[in-house]
Every structure is written in structure tokens, then in C-alpha cells.
Specification:
The complex is a heterodimer of chains A (494) and B (141). Chain A is mainly alpha-helical and 494 residues long. In chain A, 77% of the residues lie in helices and 2% in strands. In chain A, strands 1-2 form a two-stranded antiparallel ribbon. Chain A starts with 6 loop residues before the first helix and ends in a 5-residue tail after the last helix. Chain B has one domain (5-134). Chain B has five helices and no strands. Chain B has helices at 5-28, 36-54, 56-62, 65-88, 103-134. In chain B, helix 1 (5-28) packs antiparallel against helix 2 (36-54), helix 2 packs across helix 3 and helix 2 runs parallel beside helix 5 (103-134). Classes of the chains: A mainly alpha (494), B mainly alpha (141). The interface between A and B is medium-sized, with 19 and 23 residues.
Chain lengths: 494, 141
């Protein structure tokens, strides 16, 4: 057998196999080593596939040798290749961080189970991005969701359990809606293969079930991606989860849901059906703007930094959805670029906050007063990520906002350009609250002796911070891939 | 319930037949209703029945916690193992056609092992959940 031909299967199967093996090993060091190997292998595979797709077009893999549309197809195109690389890349950075981080936050005899859950969650997220089968997508969504509920519930804070339960209820409603939507589509087309479904939808004469499917899928996926006002589960889940889990989920879970939304809108229903025949664009524009402003405004009044940046995530998802609502190549480029840039920025932020948590025992604004003096490097990293959230030139966030503004100008919507800039000012306000506490206040007496984060926490965090700056300066990977993906979604190239 | 003669005798009589029925459902899955999931549940139900009549401690002596946890993982691994066997024999992942010289026999062989993996994991999950609930308050005390 040649390994190269089976990369799409191995992408998902390696982390999936690592999970039960980690349970069998029952040893935290061995489980860590195993899951780490699987995660890094998954990242390497995703990079290889990304190169292949860029060079020679989409890859298709028939699981069990049943050819599509009868069997389950794994399909890697420009968009899924980028999302796969993002998810596995974030996991490859976060996992080494986990070892030092969960030492302080999770009971030792549960560590091997933590790694198993992490591997499961990773394989679920990768599966969503790679599969070309609607029901398979739902199954992977459930794998990633169920494991992420467990990961969140492992948080040291007792409220973590409640947050996980809240997410479980909302997530299950979302998943139910998605499976109803998929069921309706199956009813109308008789196929579950996404590409085949899209072809057969053209000849479906009865539109009501298809419209219902679109509605169910939109609401279900919007719940999972925390689109305002369906974001209620997110702030608590991110705030009380273990630090490493916050970083991993903030960087990947909602992004993969955005991928699923793009996939259904553009690859199944088709851009014309969603945006030309229905007022979806206006609808999404309003929700995106509401998210950008309301969530940013709420973030300003948070005292817990993890909650603050969780609300900021809801606002940033607003930007991502705003890009979709333009229904143009530039708008979709902005969406996909921001997907990557925000993932890297938020991942870095939550990793740094985890280091602060480890050193100071908490991340409330009152506790981190004067942190600029005792942990200067970590503080500087947080400020850099904050600048990226605002969209200052030289950071990744600027690139995304630039493309959003370009897309708005293309449509001649100058008021929207104004609103995008205005919402960035709200980001300045919440980032400033941290800056003020960190640099202009004296540290609490009992925390004046705190030292800089250990290398095991600092190194992965700074890798992500480095990526945040790098993607702000060199946009060939991010914008290049995003433009290809956008062109593919709008049908310009296969 | 431990001292109730009727229950103890009926349980002793029934449990072997429940186990037998589980095996029937497992292997008849090819031709009729049934398969790994159902068989795993019936298998676990027999064990739960035993635990209810003879006590959790006795049940844990038969199937200790570590074994139940290993069953969770082992079933999934068996499933994935079939997938990798397809790869190693020159097919795609989860390819059953290549598992035997005759493709139809290969399909039978693949499903046989897959369903066995499903049964082991489902039984493990059921018992794990039952143990966790049944032992609540007992382990801490």
C-alpha cells in the first residue's frame, strides 16, 4: 500500500485510534506521548494534503472502496484543506501546552482520560472538515461536541460543570436541528453525498421541504458557531473550562462550524438559492452587526478576562458572518481569512491567559493588576493579541478587517465601512481595560513575587503569538488559500 | 434483594439464557434484526440483572472496573483494526472486499469483526454508566 493515497483517511483515523489506545494504556505519560505523536502526524498529513490540493485540485477518497455517491466520500478541496491545517495545527501547538497546564488544573489520575478526550475531539473536528457526506458530518459533529462537553466539565471551577451542561443542552438542540435538516434533504434528494445532493436539488420541484431544511440547518449550525443571539452557551464554557481546553476550543470549534455553514450554503444549496432567492444576506448582515456591537459592548463590562475574551469571540464571529453576507469573492475571502486569523489570535490569547492563571491563580481584572511588572513577556503577548483583535496593522486582525472593508466598498456600502471601524473602537475599549490594569496599577501585595510563566507554557503560547504577527505581515498562505477557497465556493474553479 | 430466594433462583436460571440470546442477536445480525449494538446492550443487561440481585460487589468481581474501561477502548480498536486490515491488504480504509479472496466472503468477514467491536464497546459503555450510578455514594464512603 502507498501511504500517500490514504492520507485523507489517516487524517481522521490516527487521532481516532489514539483515543482508545490512550484509555488502554492507563498511564498519563504514555497517553500524552501517543496522542502527541498522532496529533503531530495529523498536522503533517494536513500540510501534505494542502500542498497536493494547491498543486493538483481536490482529493477524493472512497471509504471502504464504495464509490461516491453510494459510499462515504472524504473530499479535500481548497477550503477543507485550509480548515484541516488550521485545526490540526492548533492542536499540535496546544497539546504540548496541555501537559504542563492540566498538571495544575485536573486530577492526576484523570490525565490519560483527558488526552483520550482531546484526541476524540480533534478527530471529530477534522472529520467535519474532511467528510463529503451529510450524515457523516453530523456524526463527527456529535463526536467533537460530546468530547468537548467532557473537556469543559473537567475545569477546576465548579461552575464548569454547569457551563458544560448549558453547552450540552444548546449543542444538542443544535445537533438535532442539523440532523432534521439533513433528514429533509435526504428525503427530497435520496442521497447523502453533498456533491450529489447539490446536483439533485436542482431538479427538486417541491421547495417547501428544501426551505425547511435550509432553516433547520441554519439555526442548528448557528447554535454551534455561536452566532448572536444564539451564543449564550459560549462565554461560560470558555471561561470555566481548563485553560488548554479554552484555547483549543476557542481556536477550532466555532471555526469548524463556520466551515459546515459555508459547505451547506455554497456547496449544497448553492449561492443563488440562499442569497438571490431568499433574503439571507440581509438577515445575516443584521445578526452579524448585532453580534459585533452587542457582544463587544458586553465584553467591556466583564471582570473575568476569560469571559471578556469569550464575548470578544462572539463579536469576532460577527465579522466572520459579515463576510458571508456580502456574497462576493472578496467577502468570502475575508470570512475564511478571519477564520484562520481569529483562531490563531484567540488561541494565543487563551494560552497566555492559561499561563497567567497558573501563576496568579485567577484571571479577574482585580487579580491581574500590575501583571505588567511581574510577568512582562506574557503581558506583552496578551497586548499583541489584543492589537490583533482591534485590527492594528502588522497583526493578523488587520488583514481580515482590510478584506472586510474592501468587500464593503466593492458593494458601495460606505456606512458599513464606518460601522466596521466603529466596532473596532469597542475592541480598543475592552483591550484597554486589560492594559490599564496590567501596566498602570500596582500588583497585589501577595502576588508581587509571581514569576514569569515556565517555558512549557510560554513556548506554545509564543508560537501562536508569533503566528498572529506572521499572518499580519506575510499573507501568502492565509489570503492565498482563502482566495482559492472563496473562488471555489462561488463556483469559479472546481 | 439478596435474601429473596425466588429472585435468586430465577436470576440464576435466566442469566445463561439472556447471555445466549445476546450471542444469537450478535451473530444473526447478518440475516435479521440485530447486530452488535443490540447484543452489547443485552449482554450488559444480563450483567446489570446479576448486579441487582447479587450485589454490585459480586458484579465487580466478575467484571472489574479496569476490564469494563478496557472494553470501551478495545471495541473501538477492533473496529479500527478492521479498517487498517483493509489498508494493509491493499484496499482503502474499512475496505472489506479485500479481506478474503472472494469479495462477498470478505464483506461477511469484515462485518463480523466490526459488529463484534461494536458489541464490546456498547456493553462496556452500558456497564460503565451503570457502575458509576450504582456506586455513587458507596465509593466515597
Amino acid at each position: 500500500m502507498s501511504v500517500a493515497a490514504h492520507l485523507p483517511a489517516l487524517q481522521v483515523v490516527l487521532p481516532l485510534a489514539a483515543a482508545p489506545l490512550a484509555v488502554l494504556l492507563r498511564n498519563r505519560t504514555a497517553a500524552f506521548a501517543l496522542v502527541l505523536a498522532a496529533t503531530w502526524a495529523a498536522f503533517a498529513i494536513s500540510v501534505l494534503m494542502w500542498q497536493q490540493v494547491a498543486a493538483s485540485g481536490p482529493l477524493s477518497y472512497a471509504l471502504g472502496s464504495w464509490p461516491p455517491p453510494w459510499g462515504i466520500e472524504y473530499r479535500v478541496d481548497a477550503l477543507s484543506a485550509l480548515v484541516l491545517m488550521l485545526v490540526s495545527g492548533v492542536a499540535a501547538v496546544v497539546l504540548p501546552y496541555c501537559r504542563a497546564s492540566i498538571e495544575r488544573e485536573i486530577r492526576r489520575d484523570n490525565h490519560y482520560l483527558f488526552y483520550a478526550m482531546f484526541a476524540l475531539c480533534l478527530s471529530g473536528l477534522l472529520g467535519i472538515a474532511i467528510t463529503g457526506d451529510a450524515f457523516n458530518l453530523f456524526v463527527f459533529l456529535e463526536i467533537s461536541s460530546l468530547s468537548s462537553y467532557v473537556l469543559i466539565a473537567l475545569g477546576r471551577d465548579r461552575r464548569a460543570l454547569l457551563a458544560a451542561y448549558q453547552y450540552l443542552i444548546m449543542g444538542t438542540i443544535g445537533a438535532t436541528f442539523i440532523v432534521i435538516g439533513v433528514g429533509l434533504l435526504y428525503l427530497m434528494t435520496g442521497t447523502l453525498n453533498l456533491a450529489d445532493m447539490s446536483v439533485r436539488l436542482q431538479s427538486v420541484t417541491s421547495h417547501r421541504p428544501v426551505l425547511a431544511a435550509l432553516a433547520f440547518l441554519t439555526v442548528g449550525i448557528s447554535l454551534k458557531l455561536a452566532l448572536f443571539p444564539l451564543h449564550q452557551w459560549l462565554p461560560n464554557a470558555y471561561a470555566y473550562a481548563p485553560s488548554a481546553v479554552s484555547a483549543f476550543l476557542a481556536a477550532t470549534a466555532t471555526k469548524v462550524s463556520v466551515y459546515a455553514l459555508l459547505r451547506f450554503y455554497f456547496s449544497v444549496f448553492g449561492e443563488g438559492a440562499v442569497f438571490k432567492q431568499l433574503p439571507m444576506a440581509e438577515f445575516m448582515l443584521v445578526l452579524a452587526l448585532a453580534g459585533m456591537f452587542v457582544a463587544s459592548a458586553v465584553a467591556i463590562f466583564q471582570d473575568n478576562l476569560k469571559r471578556l475574551f469569550a464575548y470578544s469571540s462572539v463579536a469576532q464571529i460577527g465579522y466572520i458572518v459579515l463576510g458571508i453576507s456580502f456574497d462576493s469573492v472578496t467577502g468570502l475571502t475575508a470570512t475564511v481569512v478571519h477564520l484562520v486569523n481569529h483562531a490563531v489570535t484567540k488561541g494565543a490569547l487563551f494560552l497566555l491567559l492559561g499561563a497567567v492563571m497558573a501563576a496568579m491563580g485567577g484571571v479577574t481584572l482585580a487579580r491581574v493588576r500590575g501583571i505588567g511588572r511581574v510577568m512582562p513577556r506574557t503581558t506583552f503577548g496578551i497586548v499583541l493579541c489584543g492589537l490583533s483583535l482591534i485590527g492594528v496593522p502588522g497583526t493578523a486582525g488587520f488583514v481580515s478587517k482590510w478584506y472586510l472593508i474592501l468587500a464593503a466598498m466593492e458593494k458601495g456600502q460606505w456606512w458599513l465601512v464606518f460601522l466596521i471601524v466603529l466596532s473596532s473602537l469597542l475592541a480598543v475599549a475592552y483591550v484597554w481595560r486589560f492594559v490599564e490594569a496590567a501596566y498602570f496599577r500596582a500588583p497585589r501585595a501577595d502576588l508581587a513575587q509571581v514569576r514569569e510563566a515556565p517555558l512549557a507554557l510560554a513556548l506554545p503560547a509564543w508560537l501562536m503569538v508569533g503566528a498572529t504577527v506572521w499572518f499580519g505581515l506575510d499573507t501568502s498562505v492565509t489570503v492565498g488559500s482563502a482566495a482559492r477557497a472563496a473562488a471555489m465556493l462561488l463556483g469559479a474553479v472546481p | 434483594m439478596k435474601r429473596d430466594m425466588v429472585l435468586r433462583v430465577v436470576a440464576k436460571l435466566l442469566i445463561p439464557f439472556i447471555l445466549l440470546f445476546a450471542i444469537y442477536v450478535q451473530f444473526h445480525g447478518d440475516f435479521g434484526p440485530g447486530g452488535g449494538f443490540q447484543a452489547g446492550v443485552i449482554l450488559a443487561a444480563a450483567m446489570v440483572f446479576y448486579a441487582m440481585i447479587y450485589g454490585l460487589d459480586n458484579a465487580r468481581r466478575v467484571l472489574p472496573d479496569w476490564l469494563v474501561e478496557s472494553m470501551l477502548a478495545a471495541g473501538v480498536l477492533l473496529y479500527l483494526g478492521v479498517g487498517f486490515a483493509g489498508l494493509l491488504l491493499g484496499g482503502n480504509f474499512l475496505d472489506y472486499f479485500v479481506l478474503d479472496r472472494d469479495p462477498v466472503a470478505g464483506q461477511h468477514r469484515g462485518v463480523f469483526w466490526i459488529e463484534l467491536g461494536v458489541a464490546i464497546t456498547v456493553c462496556g459503555v452500558m456497564l460503565k454508566i451503570f457502575y458509576l450510578f450504582a456506586a455513587r455514594g458507596q465509593d466515597e464512603a
